[in-house]
User: Fold this.
Amino acid sequence: MGSKRFMLSNGLGDLLREQLPYANRFIDPFCGSGGVINFVAKNLNFKGEIIAGDLQKYAVVLARAVIGRTKVFDAEYLKRAWIEKAKKKLNTSKLLNKANGVDQKYSGKIKLRVNAARKLCKTPSKIGPVWRAYGGHYFSPKQAITIDYLLNTLPKQTKYRDICLAATIIAASRAAAAPGHTAQPFQPTAGAGKFIEIAWRTDIFKSCDSALKELVPLHAKVKGRAMVSDAKKLIPKLKRGDLVLLDPPYSGVQYSRFYHVLETIARGYCGEVTGIGRYPDISERPQSEFSNAGQSYKALEQLLSGLSRKKVKVIFTFPKGKSSNGLSGDKVIELAKKYFNLDKNKSRIHKHVIGRFSTLGGNNKFNKHNREKKSRVKSEELVLLLKPKKTYESR
Ligand SMILES: C[S@@+](CC[C@H](N)C(=O)[O-])C[C@H]1O[C@@H](n2cnc3c(N)ncnc32)[C@H](O)[C@@H]1O
Assistant:
């Protein structure tokens, strides 16, 4: 989200602000962590329907928590009805006592603490998936069992469930003992051990409460829809007058590798996990043609040609240089021009500096030799405005 945050504060944000008043609906088929949707809900008085899609369920849950509502919810009510209930249940848990025992016994000895935590989390638990899959790795045993109880006590009413599940995902993503995303957890080495200690100190209940308070004021003017879907499957639902934001992957590594922990929380289950990253089986990790160098160009061409047939307007953001999924700014422009009128006056190149992990491996510019040291990289992103061909729309 690093790059998107900067882009929304000027280039992309300005273009959305300018174009949304002309749109009947706003469609975000690659909604990701919902950065753009939250921006539209928070800053723009958009009166049309918002539709979001993504291959990953966690992204859809985050989007739905905002666009699935037209009212502010009462965070204190949700805290009482959900977080307090989870706390009460957790306090009766034998696993909680054992988790606290490990924390106390090995306080200040991170390697021993991690080993004991991993051993403890092999104890079977029927409460939820996080304890077994990620306890002792991305989360302390206490954090893992807390997340499981939060999932276990989610409100039954869909409207409340959506926002509470979104708050759990946000809290877990902020707490995870991993660098920037959840491809691999920190290991208890001399260098990284301290990061585990810091991450494992996060109080999940408090973090969930903060996330709820951030989410409750965000809502749409018209109740929108969010669905797990391949972007191309949304095309039949589109029509003239729609404004479509395209922010497809630029990384040749699947997003589901980076976000499987959040995906497990969103789904409420996962099968066996393996490796240092604790990955579920590939069948549980959505695979995108856009993150496959052999398929990305064709996938983009199919998408753009489908969108052009629907006569929608498109805002397209993509890194200007070469990306690891085989696409590049030049290829994107070439395809965009084939199917749309590229509005040169309104399109721009956005320059900024972003965190290394924001690229998700999509930027090829790293120096092999100082990869560990380089924490900031320069990024140039295209923000293109594409208008339907052979029409009279001139705005
Ligand atoms: C660059 S990110 C989008 C970031 C988002 N705009 C934000 O503000 O957080 C790309 C997203 O596209 C999703 N994705 C990848 N392939 C997809 C496909 N074929 N259809 C729909 N979503 C896809 C990924 O799961 C990822 O969340």
Remarks:
- The chain has 17 helices and ten strands.
- Residues 158-175 form the longest helix (18 residues).
- Residues 75-215 form one domain.
- The first strand starts at residue 25 and ends at 28.
